[in-house]
Design a protein that fits this description.
alpha/beta; 5-stranded mixed beta sheet; two-stranded antiparallel ribbon; 54% helix; globular
């Protein structure tokens, strides 16, 4: 079986994954580490030419239930979230009586309360703008961002923290020292003492906000087979490149993606790059990339690319071999960027699509996680899962309320905003969106279970490691490609299990080309490294486009199906220069999977031990010690390496088929009536679509909320109901 620092500022994770293993592995270890994912998302994994933010395949089933109609209620973003903020602040304020607190405890409590108030204000505005809700304001987003950064950049607070840490009179407990050290560690990522740096920060954020607003107004279109220009969304563009049988349509979609670069560059992207670098250098960093990786991961850009260079060199021969095989098996045209994804998954996507109906995704995610004993510790999760115009074109999971433990031991549970981009009646789109659900649900489970003395341990900005966060989500979305998981959960609307023949075909057709996904992932950090290392005089639209194409050619072996300038991460301050985190996470995922396969009963799917170990060894610590590299080493008993990932790519197809078939048959034989079991995630789930609430698990149960969501899907996308 198998979510940064904007220069001293905001960093975030957006859907993806991880893996690795030791250099010395036994024969058994090699076999178990090859228990992988085969029915790859027909998107990112298919090839470097169709690479996008890593997403994994999700599958579902479960008996059909009576559809429920849509529930229209007021928006959950503005009025409701502000009311919820007040309730949280009141709960925090009443958790301890000021008269009973020591000065240190009172300082920590006040800091936590004031921080979370500003954090939540920013996150509410972030959600409203990214979801394009009524009344959203870029101005309010910038104001709340600056307020949060100002709070975290307060020099007097840092001086007070250091004064408390110096005390030797016993007035500061060891547990309080851990919290104070985390506050100091975080503030040091945000303190901007230079007036010039402060001005640069505010200027580049305004420029970014203006560019983002312009980008939201960029028309996304393609030309259909009849020559008609069709308005659509980025998600549909990527889906059609993988599944549309007409080459002219696929090429039109690719050309639309290529328009992103010139558009961004004509609207000030070069100026933003220049100001980001000036800001970083004002603070003593080599460039903006160095600032971001140092603050987020705790090591330099130099060390980061030493690790990436090793992976790049180890997989270059595999890339060359795969490209030659692609030409031989599929023809020269298959290497064209708009054809590769379709060549590797077009027909297979259609055949497997019925086993991944999107409307069952929430229930499958809940049931699979519940079987592994994964809980959300009283969290409230808002889920906006379907695509629409104006919505941010990438899945993400953020925490308006970052969980923590108050000084008197009271636990403040998390509040989560979670989005994906489903177009339920498009072939292959459910697969991509479902994978995002498993991925972002993994992020939410991770952060919900962080139990430390400040929300600073559980907020996703610096100094939280991108790699640590992505390891958790990618470890969990990796399950969806295991044959044993598919045997239990990949079912069509009639409840029929995906046949082994489709899994076998998927392995044969996709395993030899899995290196394309790896090379597509590492292309992003190599491009951003080159971008931020360019001299200002060379930062012109023409040169940036040239560098992007050169990186694609060198790293991916040709122009990419998802052009580097269309990757959304590079635009936003909070997500730029952290894509390497996905790569390191993929290493850690392989290493973590191997650990579970080699210990206990050697399983992951439906194993209740998994949730317990993840909580105790990975999740509870948050961004505190021992950090990403230390946590991986502590759980697996080995430093982070790329060996297991590379080894899996080199497994012969026949060996993989033999092992996966055994896992598939074993899972079928042990299948139970799990679809009838109650799902208890210890979480409130609120399904929304923009400003409308669809269902709320507090009204009855998680499964009932999923049933109402399913009914809403049938109402809004009638074709899915006829399929059912």
């Amino acid at each position: 079986q198998k979510t940064h620092t904007p220069p001293k500022g905001m960093q975030r994770f957006a859907a993806l994954r991880t893996s690795t293993a030791t250099t010395t592995t036994t024969t058994k270890a090699v076999k178990t580490s090859s228990r992988r994912r085969y029915l790859k998302s027909s998107s990112a994994a298919a090839s470097a030419n169709t690479f996008q933010t890593p997403t994994r395949r999700v599958s579902l089933h479960f008996a059909r239930r009576k559809s429920s109609s849509r529930v229209k209620t007021p928006s959950t973003s503005s009025t409701t979230t502000k009311t919820h903020t007040k309730k949280i602040i009141v709960a925090m304020a009443s958790s301890s009586s000021p008269s009973s607190q020591t000065p240190t405890a009172e300082f920590i409590e006040n800091f936590n309360r004031d921080y979370l108030q500003r954090h939540k204000s920013y996150e509410d505005n972030f959600w409203e703008t990214k979801m394009d809700l009524k009344g959203n304001s870029v101005e309010n987003l910038n104001t709340s961002f600056n307020a949060l950064e100002t709070f975290l950049g307060d020099q007097k607070t840092l001086e007070k923290v250091r004064e408390l840490l110096k005390r030797t009179d016993g007035s500061v407990s060891e547990e309080q020292k851990i919290v104070l050290n985390q506050i100091e560690k975080t503030l040091k990522c945000y303190i901007v003492e230079s007036d010039d740096a402060k001005a640069l920060r505010e200027s580049m954020m305004k420029k970014e906000g203006t560019l983002q607003k312009s980008r939201n107004n960029l028309k996304t279109q393609y030309t259909d087979k009849d020559g008609k220009v069709v308005d659509t969304t980025p998600t549909v563009i990527r889906t059609k490149m993988r599944s549309d049988p007409e080459e002219s349509v696929r090429k039109s979609c690719w050309e639309m993606l290529r328009k992103n670069g010139p558009f961004l560059l004509d609207n000030g992207f070069c100026d933003i790059i220049k100001e980001r670098n000036r800001f970083a250098r004002e603070l003593g960093f080599e460039d903006f990339y160095d600032l971001k990786v140092t603050n987020a991961e705790g090591f330099s850009k130099k060390k980061c690319f030493e690790m990436l260079d090793g992976l790049e060199q180890a997989t270059k021969p595999l890339l060359d071999k795969a490209l030659e095989m692609l030409k031989k098996e599929k023809g020269e045209d298959a290497t064209k960027p708009w054809n590769t994804g379709f060549a590797l998954s077009g027909e297979l996507t259609k055949l497997t699509d019925p086993y991944y109906p999107f409307e069952y995704a929430p229930e499958v995610w809940g049931r699979s996680f519940s079987k592994m004993n994964i809980k959300y510790k009283g969290a409230t999760m808002r889920l906006d899962l379907c695509d629409r115009k104006g919505k941010y074109p990438n899945g993400f999971c953020h925490w308006p309320t970052a969980p923590y433990k108050t000084q008197d031991g009271t636990f403040i549970p998390s509040e989560t905003n979670f989005t994906s981009l489903a177009t339920p009646d498009e072939i292959g789109s459910g697969n991509t969106a479902l994978t995002t659900l498993m991925h972002e649900g993994g992020h939410a489970a991770h952060f919900s279970n962080i139990v430390q003395g400040s929300p600073l341990f559980s907020q996703e900005r610096a100094p939280f490691s991108v790699a640590l966060a992505e390891t958790q989500s990618m470890f969990l979305d990796a399950l969806c490609e295991d044959a044993s998981w598919q045997a239990r959960y990949a079912k069509n609307r009639k409840g029929e299990t995906i046949p082994w023949e489709l899994i076998e075909r998927s392995i044969k057709e996709r395993h030899p080309y899995k290196v394309f996904q790896l090379r597509g992932m590492i292309a992003v950090p190599y491009f951003e490294k080159a971008l931020y290392e360019m001299d200002e005089k060379d930062l012109t639209p023409e040169n940036v486009l040239k560098v992007a194409d050169e990186v694609e050619m060198k790293i991916q072996g040709g122009l990419a199906g998802r052009p580097l300038m269309s990757v959304p991460h590079i635009l936003a301050d909070e997500s730029s220069c952290y894509y390497h985190g996905y790569v390191f996470a993929e290493m850690a995922v392989h290493q973590t999977r191997e650990y579970f396969f080699k210990t206990g009963d050697g399983t992951i799917v439906d194993n209740p031990r998994v949730g317990k170990e993840l909580i105790e060894n990975y999740w509870v610590h948050g961004s505190g010690n021992p950090g990403f590299l230390g946590l991986v080493n502590n759980l697996t008993g080995s430093p982070l390496k790329h060996d297991a990932w590379v080894k899996e790519l080199g497994v012969e197809v026949e060996d993989m088929l033999k092992e996966e078939k055994a896992e598939y048959e074993k899972a079928l034989a042990s299948a139970s009536s799990s679809s009838k079991d109650e799902i208890d995630l210890e979480m409130r789930a609120i399904f929304v679509h923009g400003d409308d609430v669809i269902s709320d698990s507090n009204d009855s149960s998680f499964t009932d909320a999923c049933e109402k969501f399913r009914g809403w899907i049938y109402q809004e996308w009638p074709k899915t109901k006829t399929m059912a």
